[in-house]
């Protein structure tokens, strides 16, 4: 005859923690807390850098928006070699300004940006000179 009952085996296992295992557990908790603290510090550092960068971009956007015409912005784009990209994507003035500010705040472009600003300064100085302004067709 076949037994129809479920014959299950039950067992209970108790682990006794030794002193070294509890020390490992404590060290693990300390490491987790340290990692959390370091991660929080790194996040705060990145946030501060982005916030500082944001503080610099707002005045640039306002400056370009209030002191430059679309034609002047396109001249700047032309100097950087991005006129074709800007025109092909049909950027409006606000989009061009954001694109320029993003480009100019990229550390890789620092050299060309400084050179462009320096040249624009010289052009404005020549345009403001009584004698030399007749030689500048800007």
From TrEMBL:
This is Uncharacterized protein. It comes from viral metagenome.
